[in-house]
Amino acid sequence: MALTFSDLERILVNEQKKCDNHLVIGGLEKFINNFTERQPDEERARAEQIAQTLRGYDTAAPDTRYEMIERALALVRQESAPTAPPAQTPPAPPPEPPSEFEDEEDEEEGAERVPSAKKTTRAPMVPTGFGLDASITRLQNVGPAHAKKLQKLGIYTIGDLLYHFPHRYDDYSQLKTISQLVYGEEVTLLVTVCEAHTREVRGGMTVTTVLLADTTGRINATFFNQPYLQQQFKSGRRIVISGRVAHDLGRLTFKHPEWEPFSQELLHTARIVPVYPLTEGITNRWLRRLIKGIVEYWAPQAADPLPAALRARENLLDVPTALSEIHFPTSLERMYAARRRLALDEFLLIQLGVLRQRQRWREQPGRALRVDETLVKNFLAALPFQLTHAQQRVLDEILADVQRAQPMSRLLQGDVGSGKTVVAAAAMLVAVANGAQAALLAPTEILAEQHFKTLTTILAQYPNPPRVRLLTGGLKNREKEQARAEIAAGEIDIAVGTHALIQEDVTFHDLALAVIDEQHRFGVEQRATMRAKGYRPHILVMSATPIPRTLALTLYGDLDLSVIDEMPPGRQVIKTKWLEPRERERAYAFIANQVQQGRQAFVICPLIEESEAIDAKAAVEEYERLRQEIFPNLRIGLIHGKLKPSEKEATMSAFRDHALDLLVATSVIEVGIDVPNATVMLIEGADRFGLAQLHQFRGRVGRGAHQSYCLLLAGKSGVTSDERLRVIESTQDGFRLAEEDLKLRGPGEFFGTRQAGLPDLKIAKLSDVKILEEARRIAQEIFARDPALQLPEHQLLAQRVAEFWQSKGDLS
Ligand code: ADP
Ligand code: MG
């Protein structure tokens, strides 16, 4: 069967990765010619165009190759067409030796053709006269093109570069001798070139063979299709090579190893080599060299926010050392020590901010509400169900809080469907009975609407129901005006809206309680806004993301924590089934059947990359496929992250109102959306999602009377993903899933990519529980002694805390 363009795309993407580490073996041109020949006529032209783009590829320099693939990919994806029509696409430039090998001075490689890149001295960018916050464009080695690419990585300033940490390392630090080599091992050797020769083999390929020697023996290394290397390997030259020991006719050899000229300061080989997060057009070699210069110049000058005495006591590296070791470790041990230090700093900033916040919040006068026991009892008695023990306990905690003359700040955690809303409703009722107002804020309009309906229903049974009003952006201006006026006049008791409700031009007559739903981090912004408006209401933040306790205490340390850890009785078990890819047809048949019975279904598309654009594209394709090939008779909707909020809302509403049978969605599907008639949740690429996220998806069904199902389709199986799918198949307990997920994947993934508001951690991982606890202890000690961080030795720390929290807005 002929390869398709999407196969080609995969191959090219892969190949492009190889450009980065110079692992190109060649043969791509031949491959693409074959590919072209096998295309059906209608696709031939396009394939030829792509082949044209790749002409000269096998012998081109790495960065040129990179760009060639870039152009080819654009054609494959038929995105932006190349700048020139195909016939005029300039043939690839002739193979030119990468400039970096021109001399011992380790020049900058690559395609940046700005004159400043042609530097001859090593100590690269000693940028005098400006600081870490200077733009990277001030660096001599960074021209406008590179600057733009770096910006994609979030690197704008020199400081950003210094804090652009490797995401992993290759350990080439163990130098070996030739006599010690063992087949299959990854090694690094310091050797002398004896001789090199290049010959042509079949199909125009070239093989350059280099004979290398040290005092213990000799070994060959071969390089394919890099004839220009011939000149690099002058006999007598000392080089360092890193790679895997291979076999050739019974003799040990190296095939296309990494190499660099020997110098005192090796960057790419005989050391623990940093591997950085990259973006298109930035290679690790280039970035390494850039960062090396930055680290050499700037790390020693970096100020250390922790007092020396504390560092000594806690056995922590100083910051200059840590920065240097994190980029270019002298040993793995030192690298770990550096990581510990830098991660600890991040946690410390969070902790200190959180402790400060907690204290400030507590210092504020709040309004003590009177809790009328009978009122609460009557309210509860009128409900069609009894509160669970957990709900009752949490309600008691909340009611105890609001009776104090300090504003409550409480986080209420409870799994999807655990019944948080009714607890919040009781608290709001108490506020209203005190003659004050309450607000309920949701992240989206549709959720706000949903809350509005629920509240109106719950409270309707009440003899003298509070006046509830919905205020969302979707209202007509006149209605908004009116709602605002009524809220300001105190004619509305409970205002329900999106988070924007309090930011917009709304004035409350007398706001005593604000409930913020589905907000993970503190509702910090909301609090800041409220404070700015002069309100000091009791605040209840609700979240359905089950967060293990250690984490919660750290990230939400300024909030008191309440947990509803029990589900209302009689909840249906959502039948969860992990299917083999070949059972997809069965899943579709099942969906069709459910729809025929009047039900609805979700299809979640796989998470392809952490890129909304790519995920959105894949979702569109999946949507088209389902619509045209699988379910031509169903009404199908699509939502993804690239749609406007209004478009998303419209589709969600249509689905909720049963104007759609099937909703295809990326992982953006709204948390908490309530469509009781939906009974099937089909998750494609389930192995790519964290447990917590799978659990959230699953929580979208099983909300009505009908038996509901969650179908998991996984791609390739792997140990962790299999484990994960087994866990989700076997339990519906969100907290257990969260703990398992942390164990299996680490919290970055646990929170998923959409987790808004999490502090921006550059190096600390939330699974670093030990460091986290260390940081908490140290923070508490510092705070106990110097809560306002006023001591001279805490000045820098105070500044860092302020900077760290600046964007988060609530420490003012
Ligand atoms: P969540 O915690 O996800 O916000 P909700 O508050 O929306 O959960 O509650 C989910 C559903 O469970 C609602 O229909 C609600 O009326 C119902 N419910 C809440 N508490 C109980 C209970 N103790 N017993 C039975 N049903 C309950
Ligand atoms: Mg809810």
Overview of this protein structure:
Residues 20-25, 79-127 and 746-757 have low confidence and may be disordered. The chain has 28 helices and 22 strands. It is of the alpha/beta class and 812 residues long. It is 41% helix and 16% strand. Helix 11 packs across helix 27, helix 11 packs across helix 28 (795-806) and helix 24 (719-730) runs antiparallel to helix 25. It binds adenosine-5'-diphosphate and magnesium ion. Residues 420-421, 672 line the site of magnesium ion.
| Poorly predicted ranges | 20-25, 79-127, 746-757
Class from helix and strand fractions: alpha/beta
Amino- and carboxy-terminal Cα gap:
65 Å
What is the overall shape?
Answer: globular
Radius of gyration, whole Å? 31 Å
- The total of beta strands comes to 22
| Proportion of residues in helical segments | 40-55%
Q: What is the topology, as strand order, of the major beta sheet?
A: 12-13-11-14-15-10-16
Mean pLDDT: 80
Biggest sheet architecture = 7 strands, parallel
Unique ligands: adenosine-5'-diphosphate, magnesium ion
How many helices? The count is 28
Percent in strands: 15-25%
